[in-house]
Amino acid sequence: MEQYLNEDELNRARRYLLASKCSNFIASRARLKILLCNAIEQIKTCNCLSVSSEPIVPEIAQQLHIDVYKDGKPYLPDYPHLIFNLSHSDNLAVLGLAYCPHGNCEIGVDLEKISADRDHMSIAERFFHPEEFTAINLSADRACKFTEIWTKKESYLKMLGTGLKTPLNSFSVLEDKNIHSEILPHNYILSYSINFTPQSVRVIFI
Question: The domain 80-206: what is its CATH number?
């Protein structure tokens, strides 16, 4: 997988002290670049978005430049109409991808595993919107509802690119139709937020 990374990315991988983290970074970065390069080729061919993990020429992947905004949100400076966002939880990673030829589109993705060990109500009362706190309190499965709302809020902030500069209790995600969430196998919850019509969105595990 190293052949798909450029020298800057390999140097970044080498900064990890644990060999397992270094290997995970290389593998996930390579898979990401393969998916992005195939999507770019498909857009050039038919002006549509199709996701493929077919092998590509390593030099093409090496030349794909992934940059980050000041808040750490990644983007493709050479392909601004192909937008994406990433999230990791344990050993699982997910990529949210969309093609927006008219621009002004953003996407945010968050993935979390449901945990019964958290003090859900205390956290929700302190950091969430009052409507969200009430929804969790009334839920038959508080851990699941808490994680659903948490991932929705995280994905929304990642879409905005503001991070925690926007207080979590300043907005509610309960009625926002542009925030989508689903429960996955093995107690994971995936949420993604968009500011455009969802037909062009692809969500892929990498």
Answer: 3.90.470.20
Give the domain ranges of the chain: 1-64, 80-206
Distance of CA 201 to the CA centre of its chain: 12
Q: What residues pair up with 61 in beta bridges, in sequence order? A: none
pTM, two decimal places? 0.90
Q: For residue 89, what are its two tokens?
A: 């939880």
pLDDT tens digit string along 53-108? 999 999 999 999 999 987 888 999 999 999 999 998 887 889 999 998 887 889 99
Query: What is the edge-to-edge ordering of all strands in the sheet holding 82-89?
Result: 82-89, 92-99, 201-205
- In three-state form (DSSP H/G/I as H, E/B as E, the rest C), the secondary structure along the chain is CHHHCCHHHHHHHHCCCCHHHHHHHHHHHHHHHHHHHHHHHHHHHHCCCCCCCCCCCHHHHHHCCCEECCCCCEECCCCCCEEEEEEEECCEEEEEEEECCCCCCCEEEEEEECCCCCCHHHHHHHHCCHHHHHHHHHCCCHHHHHHHHHHHHHHHHHHHCCHHHCCHHHCCCCCCCCEEEEEEHHHEEEEEEECCCHHHEEEEEC
**Cβ contacts of 50 within 8 Å, gap of 6 or more:** 38, 39, 42
